Amino acid sequence: MPTYREPPVSFVSGRGCRLVDAEGRSYLDFLSGLGVTSLGHADPEVGAAVSAQAARLLHVSNIFGNEFNEEVAAKLDALIGDGSPMGGKVFFANSGAEANECAIKLARRYGGRGRHGVVSALGSFHGRTLATLHATGQPAKHEAFLPLPEGFSHVPYGDVAALRSIDPGSVVALLLEPILGEAGVVPPPRGYLAAARAVCDELGLLLILDEIQTGLGRTGRWFAFQHEGITPDVVTVAKAIGNGVPVGACWARAEVARAFQPGDHGSTFGGQPLAMAAVLATLERLVALDAPAVAESLGARLAASLAKVEGVATVRGAGLLLGVVLEEGLEARDVFSEALRGGLVVNAPAPHVIRLMPPFVVTDEDCDEAVELLAAAIARVKAAGLDQEKEKL
Ligand code: PLP
After folding, report:
1. Domain ends where: 236, 269, 288?
2. Which of 34, 125, 223, 321 maximizes ligand 1 atoms within 8 Å of its Cβ, making it the mutation to test the pocket?
3. Which is nearest to 223 in space by CA: 204, 246, 240?
4. 391 falls in which pLDDT band (50, 70, 90)?
5. pLDDT, tens digit (0-9, with 9 covering 90-100), for 122-181
6. Are residues 181 and 318 located together in one domain of the fold?
7. What is the distance in A from the centroid of ligand 1 to the CA of 44?
8. Per the structure, how many domains does the chain have?
């Protein structure tokens, strides 16, 4: 269906941070499938775990147990506690939207009748199901699909006063991204998440953090909320947790998770052995790599080099989730296309922002190459713009 633009290129294979297209041309991948393949493409250990599991047992129903669920949930719970188990509970789904859908349903069940509202941020992105679309704070995206499920409202992102003025009424939860990813890698002011925690405590709201893009080491901590030393009530993850195998998960404090009763929620594929084998291998590899430390050190170096590129106004974000804000007059879509033509995969989430989310296996040399390719792409876009100006004169 025509839900995406015509693809500019099709990829057929990959290894680490390199991709190969159908014509055999090689690309440097600094997007990781939108923050998914954090260990790079064709990671040998994840590949081996998935192949072995495919040959052993692909799927059973959640009516039954499997050998992975408890272990994977415990590993995720410990990462949410930054190494200390939290005693939380996990629901496994197949995507980010489904993880958020679970969080929203859990909050409604926790709130009981009459308390079902979810407040989220303008500019946020939480998914494409009808409920997560309404939680997504982009009214222009809502228009074509009205009416959307009731019970969602939005506050300006990063605005603590706006959080303080939430009228709890029928509201049960505040749902936030620690950094707005799809809006162009927009970090909130320092202390925003801690303020959100305090407001939720004061008003008796659940704090749900969508760490689907920011989680699993990407920002330099296992989860971005750990930069502010807070504990959320619910955390959603997806993307990088399976290194490319589709998985989502919703973690909640045990007392919150207890609101669900058997039959309240479910998923045929959620938590099935193939996906769980991938998650187990991915989490083990991320821990062995010390993903947050890698993201922090490589990210600082990469951000500093990017900031020096001509045509770049600022670089924002954290760790290896970086938004390159272009100078006025430069369109991110043009830079994206030129970068791709030059052999660099990035994307353009906002009109003037290029996003970089390289895998954690990149080297300093890969980063230098990416900066050079991006600088060359920007220079070509600038030159083309100047030519057009001249033609007009
Ligand atoms: N939440 C955030 C912060 C995201 O970045 C995304 C996807 O980009 C989603 C939710 C939705 O995830 P999915 O596309 O796996 O449904």
Report:
1. 288
2. 125
3. 240
4. confident
5. 999 999 999 999 999 999 999 999 999 999 999 999 999 999 999 999 999 999 999 999
6. no
7. 26
8. 2
Q: What is the pLDDT of residues 226-251, one digit of tens each?
A: 999 999 999 999 999 999 999 999 99
- Name the DSSP letter for residue 123: T
CA distances from 262 to 34, 62, 63, 77, 257 (A): 34, 11, 11, 21, 12
- Alpha helices, DSSP H, located in the chain: 32-35, 44-54, 69-80, 96-111, 130-135, 139-142, 160-164, 192-203, 254-257, 273-289, 291-307, 332-342, 364-392
Nearest CA to ligand 1 atom 10: 126
What amino acid is encoded at 169 in this protein?
A: G
The CB of 185 under 6 Å from ligand 1? The reply is: no
Helix/strand/coil for 342: helix
Token representation of residue 291:
């993903």
Q: Which atom of ligand 1 is nearest to the CA of 124?
A: 3
Provide the residue range defining the domain that includes 339.
11-30+290-392
Identified catalytic residue from 29, 43, 77, 210: 210
- 69 C-alpha to ligand 1 centroid (Å): 23
Give residue-wise pLDDT tens across range 72-119. 999 999 999 999 999 999 999 999 999 999 999 999 999 998 899 999
Is the distance from the beta carbon of residue 238 to the nearest atom of ligand 1 less than 6 Å?
yes
User: What atom in ligand 1 is closest to the CA of residue 127?
Assistant: 11
pTM: 0.97
The predicted model gives 186-192 an average pLDDT of 98
CATH number for the domain harbouring residue 299: 3.90.1150.10
